[in-house]
Design a protein that fits this description.
The protein has 134 residues and is mostly helical. It contains 6 helices and 3 strands; from the N terminus they run αααβααββα. The chain has a single domain, classed as Arc Repressor Mutant, subunit A (Orthogonal Bundle), CATH 1.10.10. It has a 3-stranded antiparallel beta sheet with strand order 1-3-2. A hairpin with a 4-residue loop joins β2 and β3.
């Protein structure tokens, strides 16, 4: 009987988590999460590029090219820089943006769609205006 109770509790927790994740996608991102997300130059570039595109979705390959143009490449060759941006976006930045609900990354079509809420948009605009003054 004790095992049934534990199993049922585990199932309820898993269902709660699934429900929470679904509900969270429909809400705006919390300020702490939004701040941590826009703290990195690559993620700000992704959001800025997606905000200023006319289309609903963008191919990840196009996004990589545009991010590579927007961020500094240091002493790397153009190809090295593009490859580093590609790796960072695929393994770090796109998953983080997708997990917090600011973008949707369809891995089957390898396209991204911006779903950033209004408060996060305002935060990004404020940060971008500050960065532009530096």
């Amino acid at each position: 009987m004790g095992m049934d109770h534990t199993s049922r509790a585990d199932r309820l927790n898993a269902e709660d988590v699934a429900t929470t994740n679904t509900v969270e996608r429909g809400r705006s991102t919390s300020p702490d999460v939004a701040l941590s997300i826009v703290a990195h130059e690559h993620r700000r570039a992704v959001l800025r590029i997606l905000n200023h595109t006319d289309s609903e979705v963008m191919a990840v390959s196009t996004l990589i090219e545009r991010v590579a143009e927007h961020v500094q490449n240091g002493d790397q060759s153009a190809d090295e820089h593009r490859q580093r941006v590609r790796t960072a976006l695929h393994h770090i930045h796109l998953p983080k943006l997708d997990a917090c609900g600011m973008i949707v990354h369809d891995t089957e079509t390898d396209q991204v769609r911006n779903v950033t809420g209004e408060p996060s948009q305002e935060l990004l605009t404020a940060i971008e205006s500050y960065v532009a003054r530096e």
